Amino acid sequence: YFNNIYAYYLDLSKKILSVIYFIIIKLIKNNAKLYGAKRLAKDFKSSENMFILATGDSINNYCKKDFETIKKSDSIGINFFILHNFIPKLYLIEPHENECGYFSELDQKKFKEASIMYKGYASPRKLFKVILNIIKVPSSIKNFLVMKDAWHNENFNFITPLLREKMLNVE
User: Fold this and answer.
1) What is the pLDDT of residues 78-87, one digit of tens each?
2) Residue 19: which residues within 8 A CB-CB, separation 6 or more?
3) Burial of 68 (0-12, 13-18, 19+ CB in 10 A)
4) Which residues pair with residue 75 across a beta bridge?
5) How far apart are CA 149 and CA 133, in angstroms?
6) Long-range Cβ contact pairs of 158-164 (< 8 A, separation 24 or more)
7) Distance between CA 71 and CA 47 in Å, rounded?
8) Residue range 31-45: mean pLDDT, rounded
9) Residue 159 pLDDT > 70, yes or no?
């Protein structure tokens, strides 16, 4: 019984923290939009194919023709994929130390129309890092989306259900 009460209040406090963090983000970056997995799938699904692009060494094996195929489909670039020349439909980024100029990359003209999804921000230990990150996101980014953090049940294990059920219509 007490475990259930504790779990309920812990979950509630994390949700409240997530909302407070979004308000802080919105005060710094006034065009930020709050997104959940369902809205993300609704607004960004345009094909039956989804490519998840990361910075592993295998990305160097892709040729121009591969990227032409990817460009015709939905694609998400994860974290440091932002340093790659290819522009996916959506970037999914998390709080970073910004030691190598991660967010300054976004100031390039090629990112002006890019959609940036920021997630993983609702942790008391990350508040200062989140504020520093958001300050560094250039005002030229038109589509700055903030993912409802993983504390929300509909977004827990965000990638798997989103890709399997919403983006790819796979059962």
Assistant:
1) 988 888 889 9
2) none
3) exposed
4) 51
5) 16
6) 158/37, 158/119, 159/52, 161/37, 162/37, 162/40, 162/41, 163/50, 163/52
7) 11
8) 84
9) no
